[in-house]
Amino acid sequence: MFDRTLRQTQAPRMKVIVAEDSDLQRLFLCSLINGLGFEAIEAADGDIALDLVARTRAEIVISDLEMPHLDGIDLTRAIRARNLDQYVHVIMVTGADAVDIRDAALLAGVDDFITKESSPALLKARLQTAVRLINHATELADRTRIIKETNQRIQDDLRAAAVAQCQLLPNLQDEVMGFRVASAFVPSAIVSGDMFGYFELNDKKLGFYAVDVSGHGVHASLLSVAIGHLITPDYFRTHAFDADGRPDPAGMVATLNARFSAFDGDDYFTMFCGIVDRVSGRLDFCQAGYPSAFYVDPAGSVSLVGDGGFPVGMLSSATYGNNTHQFEIGAALVICSDAAAEAENTSNQPFGTPRIGDIARLFPRLGVDEIPLSIVQALNLWRNGVPLEDDLTVLALERKNPSDTYNNA
Q1: Is residue 91 within 8 Å of residue 62, measured between CB atoms?
Q2: End position of a domain, from candidates 142, 177, 201
Q3: Structural domains counted in the chain
Q4: DSSP letter, residue 73
Q5: Is a pLDDT exceeding 70 seen at residue 248?
Q6: CB under 8 A, 24+ apart: contacts of 118-122
Q7: I need a labelling partner for 60 at 20 to 30 A (CA). Which of 146, 196, 282, 403 fits?
C-alpha cells in the first residue's frame, strides 16, 4: 500500500531536494529518502537548493532552518516568489521547541515540519502527505488546463458563430427601392438573440422586420438564426399578403406564432415587421411585443408608431392585427430593440424612450446614417462604457425619392 502511495513503481522517481549544511545529516536524510523510493538530491546550502529547484523541477524540498548564505525561511520565500510550473512542497527541519520560528516559517510558505530527532517513520508519513498533496495539486492543474482549453475552444466556436450570424444580417447601410437604410447591431455577448432584415418584395413593396428573442447567449442566438433563415423574401411574399395580394404582415406573424408556439418550451420573441409601398408611402405593419417605432417627419417632429401587441411563440391562441401609417417623403422610421430604453446607468436609471426620441429628432440635421450610431454612442455614455446587458438592434429607414421618380421606374 505504501509503495503504491509513494509511486515507487513509477518512473522517473519523484525528486526531493535535501538542503542541509551538515554533511552527516544530509547523508542520513538522503539515504532514508532514497530507501523510500524517491530520488534525493543533495544541496549544501540554500543558494544551491534554490538553483536545483529550478533546474531539476523537484516537487519536494526538505530544508534545514539554519544554513549559510540562504537560511530555510529565506529559501522558502525565494521558492514562493519564483514563477515555477510546479508547486514545491517545503518541509522544514527545526528544533523541537521552535514554536515562534515555525510561525514565521508558515508565513513564509512552509508546508510541514520535522525535527532533527524525528524517526524514519515520521519522515515517511510527512512524505506520504506531501505526495498526496502534490498528486492532488497535479490533478487540479490538469483539470484547470483542460477547462481552459475547453473554454478556449468554446470561445473560438462562439466567435465563429458570431461571424456566421453577422453574415445573415443585411448591410449596415444601404440604398434600396428609394429608401436609405442604416442600422446598428451590438450583441451583449459574442452571439446575439436579435435578428433583422429588409428586402424587395416586388417592384413597389419593401419588406422589413426586426426580432428580439427572449433570453441571452447561445440558446437565444440559435433561435434568432433559425428565424433569420426562415424569414426570406419568399416567406414574406407567401405569408405577408392576403389572397387578394394586399399587405398582411399580421398574417405572417400569426403563421410564425403557430409554428413556434407548437414547441413545448419557453421560447418566444418580439417582432416588428412592415411592408411599405415606395410609390404611395403607405406603411402596413404588425407589432408583436416589440417596442414602438419612432416616426420622424421631415421637420424633425417625432411620434410613436405602434401600440404593443403580443409576443410570438408564447401563446398559440394569440391574435395579431395590421396597422397603417403614412410614410412621407423625407421622413424616417427608427426601430430599436428594448435594450436601448431599458439600459440603466450607474444609478439604475433606465435610458428611457424619450431619450431615444430626442436622438431620432436629430434626423433632419444628422441624416439617417448617423442615427443608429448616435444611439449607440449615447448608450455608451449613459452606461459609462459598461457593455449592454441585452442585445441592441437599431434599424432606420428614410424615404428619399419623389413619387414621380417611382412612376418612371
Answers
A1: yes
A2: 142
A3: 2
A4: H
A5: yes
A6: 120/32
A7: 146
Q: Are the beta carbons of 17 and 49 closer than 8 angstroms? A: yes
Give, for 165, the enclosing helix (H) or strand (E).
helix 120-168
Q: Same structural domain for residues 134 and 220? A: no
* No. of helices (H) and no. of strands (E), the chain: 14, 16
378 and 359 Cβ atoms separated by less than 8 Å: yes
Spatial contact of 196 and 393, defined as CB atoms under 8 Å apart:
yes
CA distance 393 to 192: 10
Residue 205: count other Cβ atoms within 10 Å of its Cβ: 22
CA distance 145 to 149: 6
- Chain Cα centroid distance, residue 230: 26
Task: Output the nine-digit C-alpha cell for 314.
Answer: 408564447
pTM for the full model?
0.67
Residues 70 and 179 in one domain: no
Could you say which DSSP state residue 36 is in? T
CATH code for the domain in which residue 256 is found: 3.60.40.10
Q: 147-197, pLDDT tens digit by residue? A: 888 878 867 766 666 666 666 677 778 899 999 999 999 887 766 778 899
Q: Are strands 194-200 and 205-213 parallel, antiparallel or unpaired?
A: antiparallel
